[in-house]
């Protein structure tokens, strides 16, 4: 990845010494023809051991997470309905579509039920395959019907075991990426260990199994591993084609399984744009990757019945803009430092303007407004103006969409991951800055460079890609806690790669004047082994202020028969004032919030008490419209009267 080459004038003694050393090596090779054979055998043995360890560590991680889930819920000892209830909120919604497909008499009827669904949204019929990313549930239900496993495995177990099985693929992909970058499978083993020991911050699959990210992130990890291999120089044509196929398939599956796909791939496109602009990646390979992103997303668009949000995505507009701007600025990578810097700034401006222009044109043609709440959320989150939009405020007040808590770094430091990550990051950033400056400098003035003597630092394309990837996704995680799982898993890969990289240790030892080939070998193996030993030693509206008549009219308009009130929502204390669900509803309705604190001057006192509190008193205005049919410490269930 990183190499230092000093050029200060060539001495004849150095040439003769180098030639003598090379001649001696040739003589040794001629005398020991078996050396090459033993080297190949060692590579085969190392590859076999490393591959076996990768598979084992992936399977063990899968079993470990499944065991945590079982121990937490006693999943095998509870009733079927209780197992389904354990999939809370949107998780239960996704699982219900899998169950719906299994209960359909035929596959065609199952597809028809999803395409003409009138249960998810009251009084409306929607196409779920267009609206949501649920093709994975469809595929899994078909697989369960086809395979002869119905007698041995219940549908719910087939579902959760598939997700835990994907975790095995996820960890294996992280392992391989680190191995590809460092050249030793010990790096992959350390990455996997860090992933497991930091599981609180690297995954939440054991308690939110059906979430879309748990389907998508394994494919994202495969894609990163494939890109890492693809960016290696001097690949054989067949290897390159197979790698491109792997990138396309993983990109497509990642896009198909997660609603946030276009935003994650936009970050990835920015990584490619930065590195391509600084001449740190081969332009041809970057073009292939842009094309794969566009093609994969358009294929998902077709499967989702021409979903307009995909056609109007910033990713497609950005990638097309970059490719157009390249054609307009053919001499982007020539000239002096200031000349190239000016061209680069102009290129950035052209791409930005083209992206906004294309995106606005597409949205106007499609009359697309369904993603406005996302931009309102981003505008309010980064301090560009307040909003009273309910959806945007719901995101703003949700802890998962807040800033990354500081105690995350304390946990990551306990396993030494954060310290190792910062160490590797600092060294590779210095190398990247040196390479970027060198690439932007005038490369035609070789004579002055030879006379002055220079220290040239090289950064391999695959290492450069992973560096910018981890930086951009790090900023994303810092700003939005829910996205930390994209960063922390890659943090494990990047830190382990650096600790096992001979180039990293070579650069560091040369900087402190302790360079020795034997020391490099000692450091790249001893440090990760010591950390592994350390890790083994150390772990593991009905809640608003509305009258009974208003609430009854609202609910009956949706065809509701029963209403379930939850005390933990009605009396919520988890969020601060202004972010509780009841506060968001009060603000949206123009009412003052409960409790001490400031209110906006235009908010007014509500004309009615809070419905979820007042209904429990069984007063006549409420009993006329609602009859309590069930009650426990948490839930209160009421049947709506149809006579009013």
UniProtKB/TrEMBL annotation:
Places the protein is found: Membrane
Keyword line: Glycosyltransferase, Membrane, Transferase, Transmembrane, Transmembrane helix
InterPro entries linked: Dpy-19/Dpy-19-like
Tagged with keyword Transmembrane helix: yes
Organism: Equus przewalskii (Przewalski's horse)
Protein name per Swiss-Prot or TrEMBL: Protein C-mannosyl-transferase DPY19L3 isoform X3
GN (gene name): DPY19L3
Domain of life according to the entry: Eukaryota
Topology class, membrane: Multi-pass membrane protein
Residue spans crossing the bilayer: 44-66, 168-195, 215-231, 243-260, 296-324, 344-362, 416-437, 457-478, 485-505, 517-537
The family this protein is said to belong to: Belongs to the dpy-19 family.
Lineage of the species this protein comes from: Eukaryota, Metazoa, Chordata, Craniata, Vertebrata
């Amino acid at each position: 990845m990183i190499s230092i080459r000093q050029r200060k004038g060539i001495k004849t003694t150095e040439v003769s010494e180098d030639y003598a050393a090379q001649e001696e090596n040739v003589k040794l090779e001629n005398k020991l023809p078996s050396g090459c054979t033993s080297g190949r055998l060692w590579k085969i043995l190392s590859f076999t051991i490393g591959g076996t360890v990768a598979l084992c560590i992936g399977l063990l991680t899968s079993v470990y997470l499944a065991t945590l889930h079982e121990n937490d819920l006693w999943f095998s000892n509870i009733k079927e309905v209780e197992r389904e209830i354990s999939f809370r909120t949107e998780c239960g919604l996704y699982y219900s579509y899998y169950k719906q497909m299994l209960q359909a008499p035929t596959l065609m009827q199952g597809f028809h039920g999803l395409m003409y669904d009138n249960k998810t949204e009251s009084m409306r019929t929607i196409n779920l395959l267009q609206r949501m990313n649920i093709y994975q549930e469809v595929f899994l239900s078909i697989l369960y019907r086809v395979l002869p496993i119905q007698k041995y495995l219940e549908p719910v177990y087939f579902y959760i075991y598939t997700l835990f099985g994907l975790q095995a693929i996820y960890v294996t992909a992280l392992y391989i990426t680190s191995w590809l970058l460092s050249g030793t499978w010990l790096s992959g083993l350390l990455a996997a260990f860090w992933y497991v020991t930091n599981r609180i911050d690297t995954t939440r699959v054991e308690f939110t199994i059906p979430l879309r990210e748990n389907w998508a992130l394994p494919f994202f990890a495969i894609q990163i591993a494939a890109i890492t291999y693809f960016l290696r120089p001097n690949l054989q044509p067949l290897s390159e084609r197979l790698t491109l196929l792997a990138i396309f398939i993983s990109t497509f599956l990642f896009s198909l399984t997660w609603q946030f796909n276009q935003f994650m791939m936009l970050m990835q496109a920015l990584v490619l744009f930065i590195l391509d602009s600084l001449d740190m990646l081969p332009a041809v390979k970057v073009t292939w990757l842009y094309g794969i992103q566009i093609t994969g997303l358009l294929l998902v668009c077709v499967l989702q019945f021409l979903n307009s949000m995909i056609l109007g995505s910033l990713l497609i507009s950005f990638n097309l803009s970059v490719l157009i701007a390249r054609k307009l600025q053919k001499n982007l990578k020539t000239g002096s430092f200031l000349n190239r810097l000016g061209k680069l700034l102009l290129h950035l401006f052209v791409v930005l303007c083209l992206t906004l222009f294309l995106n606005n044109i597409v949205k106007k043609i499609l009359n697309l407004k369904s993603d406005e709440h996302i931009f309102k959320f981003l505008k309010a989150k980064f301090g560009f103006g307040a909003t009273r939009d309910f959806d945007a405020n719901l995101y703003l007040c949700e802890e998962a969409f807040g800033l990354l808590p500081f105690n995350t770094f304390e946990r990551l430091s306990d396993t030494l991951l954060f310290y190792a990550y910062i160490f590797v990051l600092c060294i590779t950033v210095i190398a990247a800055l040196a390479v970027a400056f060198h690439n932007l400098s005038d490369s035609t003035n070789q004579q002055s460079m030879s006379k002055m003597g220079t220290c040239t630092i090289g950064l391999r394309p695959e290492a450069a890609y992973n560096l910018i990837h981890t930086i951009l996704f790090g900023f994303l995680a810092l700003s939005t806690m829910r996205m930390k799982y994209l960063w922390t898993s890659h943090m494990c890969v990047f830190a382990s790669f650096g600790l096992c990289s001979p180039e990293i240790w070579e650069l560091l030892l040369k900087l402190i004047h302790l360079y020795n080939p034997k020391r490099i070998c000692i450091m790249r193996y001893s440090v990760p082994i010591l950390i592994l030993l350390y890790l083994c030693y150390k772990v593991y509206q009905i809640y608003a202020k509305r009258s009974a008549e208003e609430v009854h009219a609202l609910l009956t308009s949706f065809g509701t028969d029963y209403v379930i009130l939850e005390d933990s929502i009605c009396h919520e204390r988890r969020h601060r004032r202004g972010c509780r669900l009841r506060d968001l509803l009060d603000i949206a309705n123009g009412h003052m919030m409960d409790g001490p604190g400031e209110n906006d001057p235009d908010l007014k006192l509500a004309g009615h008490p809070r419905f979820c509190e007042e209904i429990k008193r069984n007063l006549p205005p409420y009993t006329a419209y609602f009859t309590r049919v069930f009650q426990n410490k948490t839930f209160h269930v009421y049947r709506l009267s149809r006579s009013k």
